[in-house]
Design a protein that fits this description.
The complex is a heterodimer. In chain A, 33% of the residues lie in helices and 19% in strands. By secondary structure, chain A is of the alpha/beta class. In chain A, helix 4 (88-102) runs parallel beside helix 10 (233-245). Chain A is globular. Chain B contains 14 helices and nine strands. In chain B, helix 3 packs antiparallel against helix 12, helix 3 packs across helix 13 (393-416) and helix 6 (188-196) packs parallel to helix 13. Chain B is 39% helix and 9% strand. Classes of the chains: A alpha/beta, B alpha/beta. The interface between A and B is large, with 55 and 54 residues.
Chain lengths: 406, 461
């Protein structure tokens, strides 16, 4: 068991709470990761199928936390390779490169993705390796290259479209909403659009309002698309690979400030489940739901909370559309209190939808109203001090938990 | 360029004094202007530049008087005259045509030969399209269909372009090109099924009438949004280019569609990626009620091709032979040279924009009639094939009788066919329904079960 925990404990610099207390594990019912078709799918046991079509039997066995796992049993884990360390943007690049090697139909398009390697270096050296047609530098017209990606996807390719900043994809909203999300449906299933749309978003460090957008708010209503947000090098690589292999259009949200996170990830191939949330820290007192950068603010607050005697359960929801209500529901049924911490604005954000979903589905299990901490409904200012106060800080999270658990 | 000359030239020039170097007519230039050097051999040293060691050498075969500036993007000749390029050229881009209004071949016209079998097939399809439009339009007026839009007046664009393409060429239509689908083999029954949204519709009842799609026939499902299919076509061409297929991507749009941002993005991308895509613009004079004079101020759409580095041609869209030839040639160029081609087909929208429009409110009935009678593509082509002895009055009557029967039968059957079942509401949103969709379906079924009288009885579950 300890060996698995060791793997799990290979923490990123900002989240010492990745390591798991084995006593807490006894409470959760999860299955060990299943080796499927030569690669590891890290997932929890469920009785119904996920949209990816794979069915996994509910199991009584325990699992180390879903962040970093080993495929084989505990006994052999000590002899497994320890993996390799890399930064989040490198993990994304590794995932993308592996998929491009595996399937000749995968291609990349976007601004400065070719020789420049991408503004955040996610596509570094790919043009050198795969050629500048397969890693295509496009002129500046987001709607046009997103449309181009959709057309290419409908004719058999698997494009990965990069928005230099997620905010720029607002220009591609028409294509994403009216065509990407809809054409599979309106064509009666005749045409599929296995496209991945990805890019950095969220509030950075003094990037100004236009470059600090949270597009997940705007896109969440579009039927036909899936949305996932990565937060660690491990899940970044896993979600990138899963998104590329998915037959549905997937929007992968990365965060501008997380690209340099370092973590040790497995050497062997693995894919994360697109529709599954990640248990970051099991707990008893309160369920804290978060994603992307806010995960780290939550874990920082969790340190303080533990010192004050609280036991928060932290879940990185990862799948923004659809929500993993199974994992979330199990947590709510255990703790009866929910705190949502997000970077979206109060009005119409992911938190707002999640609050509604939890209230609708788990009302009977709640001992207190769902609390949602979000950014204010203001454009993100440039001044550093002002910007800091538009983003939910650990102190606010601690206060909210204290009030929730009174 | 001989290397030894270059090095010897540098050696000589470095000894020249700066004021000696500049030519008379260059003295007015500001110091920041870099002037390319002249080849020294055979020329006066007056024209050499002191910056010779750093500057690239221009071609020796150039006219000695040509002077050019070097900028990112290449060399560009410069001029001391301040001249603005006029917003319009003196003459409009000429329109390519082969047949006159009476179906007579214009002397010295260049065109791709069309044999009897092909010509008759084209004509039959044009008539079928026209009749289908008329009958379906009437069906909407009678309340049997919710919506329809005709392609009246644009039969030549529809059929002749389809005839010049191959089945592997992928089509991205706007919505006024059902003729392309008809040519490829979509039956009248299949058209009717889509319009009635019954369970035999390939779209499973999910789209409005006339939003056809067929992956089997490489005709991508119509999306109601204007011009969004243009970047799709470029993406498809990119895909064909990667696969090195002997096929091109073809997309249609109207004069109104050329104003959308996607038009500009797509043309630019097609040129930059050097992809084999045909952009066929049906300039029919109207975008609902907006005439082209309110749509753009350029010389139509063909003039925009050059702005993006795209080869273009203007064609008489009512002339089936000209359309056939132009598309045939364009396809050849697109595939062999791997480049996009823009074809502006001038025509007139004889019908209303759709059944939700009454165009006599913004244009005169006389104008419509003059085009319908005087410049109908169907009539023009008929006259040509009759002149060739390939068609007759009897054949016409027989064709119309047969087609009318088929259309009416198709409509009757489509009307009687059941509507798609409830499960189609939730399928195909994703490849497999997600958990929230499964819940929503269960919830809906419960409601239907508990209130059967409120739920239509002719829709299966």
């Amino acid at each position: 068991m300890s060996a698995i925990l060791q793997g799990a404990g290979a923490a990123t610099a900002l989240s010492p709470f990745n390591s798991v207390d084995s006593k807490k594990l006894a409470a959760s019912r999860r299955s060990l990761p299943v080796r499927v078709g030569g690669y590891i799918v890290a997932r929890s046991g469920v009785s119904k199928s996920f949209p990816s079509g794979l069915r996994v039997r509910r199991s009584e066995q325990l699992i180390a936390n879903a962040v970093a796992t080993k495929a084989d049993g505990a006994a052999s884990s000590t002899s497994s390779k320890p993996g390799h360390e890399l930064l989040l943007f490198e993990a994304l690049q590794e995932g993308l490169e592996e998929e491009m090697e595996r399937d000749a139909r995968v291609c990349v398009m976007g601004e400065d993705v070719g020789h420049y390697g991408g503004s955040y270096k996610v596509t570094k050296d790919l043009a050198k390796k795969f050629g500048d047609l397969r890693v295509l530098d496009t002129p500046i017209c987001e709607n046009a290259f997103t449309g181009m990606g959709i057309g290419a996807a409908m004719t058999g390719l698997r494009p990965v479209v990069e928005g230099m900043n997620m905010g720029f994809l607002l220009l591609a909203f028409n294509q994403i909403s009216n065509n990407c999300g809809m054409l599979h449906y309106t064509s009666g299933g005749q045409f599929t659009i296995p496209i991945v749309i990805r890019g950095p978003g969220g509030v950075g460090r003094q990037l100004g309002a236009e470059h600090s957008q949270r597009l997940e708010s705007y896109f969440q209503s579009i039927p036909g698309i899936q949305m996932v947000a990565c937060s660690t090098p491990y899940n970044a690589k896993g979600l990138m690979k899963a998104a590329i292999r998915s037959e549905n259009p997937v929007i992968l949200f990365e965060h501008v400030l997380l690209y340099n996170l370092k973590e040790r990830i497995p050497d062997e191939e693995y894919v994360c489940n697109l529709e599954e949330a990640e248990m970051v820290r099991p707990g008893e007192h309160v369920t804290i739901l978060t994603y992307s950068r806010m995960r780290y603010h939550v874990m920082q607050a969790a340190k303080t909370l533990v010192n004050k005697g609280f036991d928060p359960e932290v879940i990185d929801i990862r799948s923004l559309k659809p929500f993993d209500l199974y994992t979330i529901g199990n947590s709510v049924k255990k703790t009866h209190r929910v705190l949502i911490v997000e970077e979206c604005m109060r009005t119409g954000g992911i938190g707002a939808s999640l609050t509604a979903a939890i209230n609708e589905n788990f009302h009977d299990y709640l001992d207190a109203p769902v609390v949602c901490l979000s950014s204010q409904d203001v454009p993100t200012p440039y001044a550093g001090t002002l910007e800091e106060w538009t983003v939910v800080q650990p102190a606010q999270i601690v206060t909210a938990v204290e009030q929730l658990c009174l | 360029m001989a290397l030894h000359l270059r090095s010897s030239r540098s050696a000589i020039l470095s000894k020249l004094k700066p004021w000696f170097g500049l030519g008379r007519h260059l003295r007015g230039n500001p110091p920041s202007v870099r002037v390319l050097e002249y080849p020294l051999v055979g020329f006066s040293r007056r024209f050499s530049s002191t910056m010779s060691e750093k500057l690239p050498v221009i071609g020796r075969d150039d006219d000695a008087k040509t002077q050019a500036l070097d900028f990112p993007g290449g060399k560009v000749p410069f001029t001391p005259e301040m001249r603005f390029i006029s917003e319009s050229s003196k003459e409009r881009v000429p329109c390519y045509r082969v047949l006159d209004e009476n179906g007579g071949q214009i002397p010295n016209s260049q065109f791709v030969q069309v044999g009897e079998e092909m010509a008759v097939k084209i004509y039959r399809h044009m008539v079928t399209l026209r009749m289908m439009d008329n009958v379906f339009y009437e069906a909407q007026r009678q309340g049997r269909l919710s919506f329809y839009a005709t392609s009246l007046g644009e039969e030549a664009i529809n059929i002749a372009s389809a005839a010049a393409l191959a089945i592997d060429d992928v089509i991205f239509p706007q919505y006024r090109e059902p003729g392309v689908l008809l040519w490829r083999g979509f039956t009248l029954q299949e058209f009717a099924n889509q319009c009635f949204g019954n369970e035999a519709d390939y779209g499973k009842g999910r789209q409005m009438p006339i939003h056809y799609g067929s992956n089997r026939l490489n005709y991508f499902t119509v999306s109601a949004t204007i011009a969004t299919q243009l970047p799709h076509a470029v993406g498809a061409a990119y895909s064909l280019k990667m696969d090195k297929k002997d096929a091109c991507s073809v997309t249609f749009f109207g004069d109104g569609g050329s104003s959308e941002g996607d038009f500009h993005g797509a043309l630019n991308f097609a040129a930059v990626t050097e992809s084999p895509v045909l952009f066929i613009c049906r300039n029919n004079g109207w975008a609902i009620s907006t005439p082209t004079s309110d749509q753009f101020r350029s010389d139509g759409v063909v003039a925009k091709g050059r702005a993006y580095g795209v080869r273009s041609i203007r064609v008489d869209g009512n002339d089936a032979l000209a359309m056939y030839s132009a598309v045939h040639a364009a396809r050849e160029m697109a595939i062999t040279e791997q480049r996009p081609i823009l074809i502006e087909a001038l025509t007139y929208r004889v019908g209303h924009h759709s059944t939700s429009d009454d165009s006599t409110r913004y244009r005169s009935a006389d104008e419509i009639e003059s085009w319908n009678v005087g410049r109908s593509p169907v009539t023009i082509f008929r006259k040509w094939i009759e002149g060739k002895g390939w068609w007759s009055e009897e054949a016409e009557t027989e064709l119309r009788r047969e087609v009318k029967k088929q259309i009416l039968e198709a409509i009757q059957l489509a009307e009687k066919t059941k509507k798609p079942p409830l499960k189609h509401l939730f399928e195909d949103v994703y490849n497999v329904p997600s958990s929230n969709l499964e819940e929503q379906e269960m919830s809906l079924r419960q409601i239907v079960k508990s209130r059967p009288l409120d739920y239509p009885s002719d829709v299966p579950l």
